[in-house]
């Protein structure tokens, strides 16, 4: 996806928050802010890929502040919020353990996104509200059919915290479908995205082969991911993609296999791109070849 005029103000907000998390000294914050403004002035142009630009911006902040993981505390907080909610969500799902309800839980977890939302957002309240929403676009029947026929799938996780909800869906898929699951996390810190340690702590290796994308990027950025990841995108039978960053990146690529996007639309640009109201839960099948 290409940048929209609204992306500029969002990137400035994200930059301020990242800088504040990365360093305490106001003089240093000012210096890095000036670097950010120079970067945006030089690089924010029409037809620029949004998540590649966001990735480069966050790496600039990490380099200039000397802090390679500004969102570490928020990622851990996201995991804590999710783990507190899991018992009540599992109880709710068990009353009607359909694929749809497991997907609803996974999409509700996508709310835990300190890149798209203000850092003061009450995530717990939002998640409880989101999980009861119907899907505005619902391609679950297509997902069920594709899973039934598939031998291998690639599951692209998104945020810390959210990955706790992903575990519920991954386990469901493993138990109900005869499929090999490859689950990919980020190679290194970027925003509050899930890392290998998060996946290992949740023992996701019991249900999936754990790998990284080969990059610390906002979603999938074609220029930065590993050769292994590029090959997987075109060799597995289907891809399940969580979150907006992966949507931004994958829709800029040519991919031979069907992609199922599971996300909550947390910004106007993504909402308009998909054609749904802000705050919508969606399950969308796209062919990107």
Annotation, overall tally of beta strands: 7
The CATH superfamily of the largest domain bears the name: Uncharacterised protein PF01937, DUF89, domain 3
What is the averaged pLDDT score?
Answer: 92
Rounded to the nearest angstrom, the distance between the terminal CA atoms is: 15 Å
- Unreliable runs, pLDDT <50, ≥5 residues? 114-119
Q: What would you report as the Rg, rounded to the nearest angstrom?
A: 18 Å
- SSE-based structural type: alpha/beta
Shape: globular
Describe the structure.
The chain is of the alpha/beta class and 289 residues long. The longest helix has 23 residues, at 72-94. Strand 5 (238-242), helix 11 and strand 6 form a beta-alpha-beta unit. A seven-stranded mixed β-sheet has the order 1-7-6-5-2-3-4, sandwiched between helices. It is globular and about 55 Å long. It has helices spanning 5-22, 26-43, 50-65, 72-94, 99-109, 123-130, 140-149, 162-176, 196-201, 227-233, 244-250, 268-274, and strands spanning 135-138, 152-156, 180-185, 209-212, 238-242, 259-264, 281-286. Helix 4 crosses helix 8 (162-176), helix 5 (99-109) runs antiparallel to helix 6 (123-130) and helix 5 packs antiparallel against helix 8. Helices cover 51% and strands 12% of the residues. The protein has two domains: 5-65, Orthogonal Bundle (Helicase, Ruva Protein, domain 3); 72-286, Uncharacterised protein PF01937, DUF89, domain 3 (Rossmann fold), CATH 3.40.50.
């Amino acid at each position: 996806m290409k940048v929209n005029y609204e992306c500029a103000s969002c990137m400035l907000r994200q930059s301020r928050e990242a800088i504040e998390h990365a360093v305490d000294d106001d003089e240093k914050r000012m210096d890095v802010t000036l670097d950010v403004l120079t970067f945006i002035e030089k690089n924010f142009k029409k037809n620029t890929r949004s998540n590649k630009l966001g990735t480069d911006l966050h790496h600039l902040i990490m380099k200039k502040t000397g802090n390679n993981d500004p969102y570490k505390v928020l990622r851990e907080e996201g995991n804590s919020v999710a783990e507190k909610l899991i018992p009540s969500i599992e109880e709710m799902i068990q009353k009607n353990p359909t694929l749809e309800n497991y997907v609803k839980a996974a999409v509700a977890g996508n709310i835990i996104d300190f890149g798209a939302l203000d850092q003061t957002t009450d995530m717990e309240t939002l998640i409880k509200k989101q999980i009861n929403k119907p899907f505005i676009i619902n391609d679950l029947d297509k997902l069920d059919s594709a899973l039934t026929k598939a031998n291998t799938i690639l599951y692209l996780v998104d945020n810390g915290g959210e990955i706790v909800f992903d575990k519920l869906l991954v386990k469901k898929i493993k138990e109900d479908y005869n499929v090999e699951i490859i689950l990919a996390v980020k190679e290194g810190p970027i925003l509050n995205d899930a890392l290998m340690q998060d996946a290992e702590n949740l023992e996701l290796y019991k249900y999936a082969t754990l790998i990284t994308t080969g990059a610390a990027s906002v979603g999938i950025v074609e220029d930065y991911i590993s050769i292994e990841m590029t090959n997987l995108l075109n060799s597995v039978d289907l891809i399940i993609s969580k979150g907006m960053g992966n949507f931004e990146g994958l829709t800029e690529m040519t991919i031979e296999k069907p992609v199922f996007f599971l996300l909550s639309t947390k910004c106007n640009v993504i909402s308009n791109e998909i054609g749904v109201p802000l705050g919508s839960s969606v399950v969308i099948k796209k062919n990107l070849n």
